[in-house]
Design brief:
The chain is of the alpha/beta class and 361 residues long. Helices cover 36% and strands 16% of the residues. It has a 7-stranded mixed β-sheet. Helix 4 links the parallel strand 3 and strand 4. The two termini are 34 Å apart. The structure holds pyridoxal-5'-phosphate (PLP). The site of pyridoxal-5'-phosphate has 11 residues, from helix 3.
Length: 361
């Protein structure tokens, strides 16, 4: 069976060469006589895999030594609680609400202290990224953003200027999509299952000085969620997702071997701009996000007719393009174009859109 064009929002397409390499090593990893799945996480072989994954990610993003890198489990969702538990020292943080993922993070954070909404675009159905007009209160423990809102398809093109207040960013759906200046952040995190590898690994990049005194809520923070303890143990406080980390490491190498994040960024904007350009001229489809805030990863669009949307999605599936159904809270369509989605996949989707439009406009 041929592989489909995979526009899933996550878990999502992985580079074929990574899958094949993992397949070739699946039963026997190097000369260990066993699969990575069967290996002790305390073995030198796995330690090497873990260290290599971290070192490769550090090179790919240019992560300074002043930052710790963690590979945890529990998804990005667990970090909605992990972040306030570790960083809300004065029980006061500020959140930008740009869509459902920042909203979920905000709801969770409220369990741990006072959380101010610094800006929100809920009133306009999250059709844009919230601008931050007022200066940031310097007493806040951190400012939180979801830098790319996967469901609505918006992206922050500029970061809030927080002064001394650390910036915390959920980069799940723009992980490895483009270079980032890590030094501008206090903490970045991402569920790996979009462009980083399989589900079950969450990558956290955090300034060491923010965690050096242990979690803000040491009274309630589980050991597992204690970033200081996890950093001291290289994410191996308990049994980590060994196979997931192994696969992420392979994806990080693939990024490095294919020109790094600079090349990824060019390829990703080319893909999504192919779709945005089409949407801007279409008489049937329209994109939902204002042009200046469009995502590098998730292109969200609709015909404004539920039946036609359903017909389009069914036709896409029949033609080997899967995952274009929009998120259940929004409907319509969404094409997620992470690193492993090819330009050919996007061109094929746009050709189908044009054909569908000819028959239905
Ligand atoms: C931006 C963003 N944050 C958080 C999450 C939640 O991730 P997880 O399912 O790993 O908890 C998602 C899931 O799609 C997401 O897109």
């Amino acid at each position: 069976m041929a592989r489909v064009f995979n526009f899933n929002p996550g878990p999502a397409a992985m580079p074929l060469s990574v899958l094949k390499e993992a397949q070739s090593e699946f039963v026997e990893y190097k000369d260990t006589g066993m699969s990575v799945l069967e290996m002790s996480h305390r073995s030198p072989e796995f330690e090497a895999i873990n260290n290599d994954a971290e070192a490769t990610l550090r090179r790919v993003y240019g992560i300074p030594d002043t930052y710790a890198v963690l590979f945890l489990s529990g998804g990005a969702t667990l970090q909605f609680a992990g972040i306030p538990m570790n960083l809300m020292f004065h029980r006061h943080a500020g959140y930008l609400i740009a869509g459902n993922w920042s909203e979920k993070a905000y709801e969770e954070a409220k369990k741990y202290g006072q959380v101010d909404v610094l800006a929100s675009t809920k009133d306009t159905h999250f059709d844009r990224y919230p601008p931050l007009s007022s200066p940031i209160d310097q007493d806040l423990d951190y400012v939180y953003i979801c830098q790319n809102e996967t469901v609505y398809g918006s992206m922050a093109k500029k970061l809030p200027q927080g002064g001394e207040v650390p910036l915390v960013s959920d980069i799940s759906s723009m992980f490895l999509a483009c270079p980032l200046d890590i030094s501008k952040y206090g903490l970045l995190y991402a569920g790996a299952q979009k462009a980083g590898g399989p589900a079950g690994v969450t990558v956290i990049i955090v300034r060491k000085d923010l965690i050096e005194n242990g979690p803000a809520r040491a009274d309630i923070c589980p050991n597992y969620m204690d970033f200081k303890k996890q950093a001291a143990k290289h994410s191996m406080l308990n049994t980590p997702n060994t196979f997931g980390i192994y696969l992420c490491g392979k994806v990080f190498h693939w990024i490095e071997d294919t020109g790094g994040l600079v090349e990824r960024e060019k390829a990703n904007w080319k893909k999504v701009n192919t779709l945005y350009d089409y949407l801007d001229h279409s008489k049937l489809f329209r994109g939902l996000i204002v042009p200046q805030d469009r995502s590098i990863s998730n292109v969200v669009f609709t015909t404004d007719n539920k039946d036609l949307d359903a017909e389009f999605i069914e036709g896409a599936n029949e033609r080997g393009m899967v995952g274009v159904k929009g998120h259940r809270i929004l409907g319509g369509m969404r094409a997620s174009c992470y690193n492993a989605v090819s330009q050919k996949a996007v061109d094929t989707l746009v050709a189908y859109m044009a054909d569908f439009e000819r028959h239905n406009a």
